Amino acid sequence: MRTLYRGYGLKFIKYAEIGILMLIAVATLFAIGEEVKTVWHRGHVELADLLLLFIYLEVLAMVANYAEIGKLPIRMPVYIAIVALARYLILDMKAMDDWRILTVAGAALVLALTVQVIRYGQIKWPYPENGQSQSD
Length: 136
Prior knowledge:
This protein has helices at 2-42, 47-69, 75-92, 98-124. By secondary structure, it is mainly alpha-helical. It has one domain (2-124). The protein starts with a helix and ends in a 12-residue tail after the last helix. The mean pLDDT is 88.
């Protein structure tokens, strides 16, 4: 009986996961449409628009990757954070004082170094394939 409940619970979680992924994808596509509509009405594209569309593209790629392989590489949200910090820095640099600029740039550098450390760890100590134990 316990296995039966566990099976239904896992199915429910899997369906909820798929539903939430679809919701994120649809919301991202809606946000892309809103941004394109804004650019269309304004009549020209600015760098801020391109960077925001790039962030949306990264979110869609993250959803697609998660849907395809069932795992979310931690690097993808870090990439999105780096682009978001770069966008913030580019758009608001004139209004920022020197310390804020250095802080935002430093945060982006820390995130970039984090990606390098994660990547090194994945190469040096890869996860075992499905079905293998850690000691194999």
